[in-house]
Specification:
Elements lengths: L1 H26 L9 H4 L14
Length: about 55
């Protein structure tokens, strides 16, 4: 029975550490991406000037 209590405490501790790490990363702006690479493909680049060769 004591092993179950130890495992329960260990799992709650690990879950709390992951929650703290997630909240810290959100607070520090890790997930703020206003212009991501996935939406960059939707916009055209500036056209390049091509010179005619004879």
């Amino acid at each position: 029975m004591s092993v179950i209590i130890i495992l329960l405490i260990a799992s709650i501790t690990v879950a709390a550490l992951f929650l703290i790490a997630f909240l810290w990363s959100v607070k520090s702006g890790q997930f703020e991406d206003d212009f991501s690479p996935s939406s960059r493909i939707l916009f055209d680049d500036k056209p390049t000037t091509k010179t005619k060769t004879k």
